[in-house]
């Protein structure tokens, strides 16, 4: 039984068609990447799945339940950077989140341990590195021991060290048996962290399935420096297909 099953989800904002008939299943226990360039509909999709937004059409079941019956505590979310208090410690910040979720000290200690923050739990949040701040945010999402963790671009804005820490934490949480659904605009990240992927382009589902099957297909390839001769030719012929370019490096070419 899939953890999440989407059937023909569509969403429009005024004149912008953000999602068109998107359907895919997320198997239990996988790390599922929702991959696509900025503006492809990833955040909208995660918003619908977490009941922050309502789809115009289509339906979905999460943990085999329709929206009306869904148990909120079974789903942990990190959709935007939480408003942590800079002058409070990591522990105190989690205490506030735990109070809202009606969780006790044992749960706070559990998630601090998972996030590798036990030794620094009493340090002020403002002294944390970028990676530690994001690990605290993931720890907060894990309060209540949800079965499913939903993360929107969890490594965005981090330094290389923070990116490595957060990716390691995601893999560790997955190994503990939770299903993780995460948005990313980086093919490289999906290849390194995810077992399954759905690729969105302009609100349409391009492909979905196990990363090993989907990414090996020719209709989605990486990548390299713009100085690469073959890549330069592709870009010249099909500029519309180059979906993500960062710091002169082409990260995605979608055919
Ligand atoms: P992604 O997360 O892949 O960057 P989004 O889901 O944020 O994509 O956006 C999909 C499309 O919907 C984009 O064209 C974006 O500009 C548009 N969009 C997103 N949110 C809104 C909104 N609140 N109002 C109008 N357009 C929006």
From TrEMBL:
InterPro entries: AAA+_ATPase (IPR003593), ABC_transporter-like_ATP-bd (IPR003439), ABC_transporter-like_CS (IPR017871), P-loop_NTPase (IPR027417). The keyword Disulfide bond does not apply. Gene3D superfamilies: P-loop containing nucleotide triphosphate hydrolases (3.40.50.300). GO terms for molecular function: ATP binding. Residues 4-227 form the ABC transporter domain. The keyword Cell inner membrane does not apply. Keywords: ATP-binding, Nucleotide-binding, Transport. Belongs to the ABC transporter superfamily. This is ATP-binding cassette domain-containing protein. It comes from Chitinophaga defluvii. The lineage of its organism: Bacteria, Pseudomonadati, Bacteroidota, Chitinophagia, Chitinophagales.
């Amino acid at each position: 039984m899939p953890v999440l099953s989407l059937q023909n989800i569509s969403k429009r904002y005024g004149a912008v068609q953000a999602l068109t008939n998107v359907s895919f299943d997320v198997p239990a226990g996988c790390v599922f990447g929702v991959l696509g360039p900025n503006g492809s509909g990833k955040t909208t999709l995660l918003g619908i799945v977490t009941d922050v937004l309502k789809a115009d059409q289509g339906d979905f079941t999460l943990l085999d339940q329709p929206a009306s019956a869904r148990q909120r505590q079974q789903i942990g979310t990190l959709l935007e950077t939480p408003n942590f208090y800079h002058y409070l410690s990591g522990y105190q910040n989690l205490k506030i989140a735990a109070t809202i979720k009606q969780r006790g000290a044992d749960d706070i200690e559990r998630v601090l341990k998972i996030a590798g923050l036990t030794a620094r739990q009493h340090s002020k949040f403002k002294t944390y590195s970028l990676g530690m701040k994001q690990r605290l945010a993931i720890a907060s999402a894990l309060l209540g021991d949800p079965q499913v963790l939903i993360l929107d671009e969890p490594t965005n804005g981090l330094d290389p060290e923070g990116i490595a820490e957060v990716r390691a934490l995601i893999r560790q949480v997955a190994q503990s048996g939770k299903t993780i659904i995460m948005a990313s605009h980086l093919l490289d990240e999906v290849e390194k962290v995810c077992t399954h992927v759905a690729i969105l382009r302009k609100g349409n589902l391009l492909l979905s399935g196990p990363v090993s099957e989907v990414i090996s297909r020719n209709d989605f390839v990486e990548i390299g420096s713009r100085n690469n001769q073959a890549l330069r030719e592709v870009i010249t012929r099909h500029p519309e297909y180059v979906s993500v370019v960062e710091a002169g490096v082409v990260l995605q070419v979608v055919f």
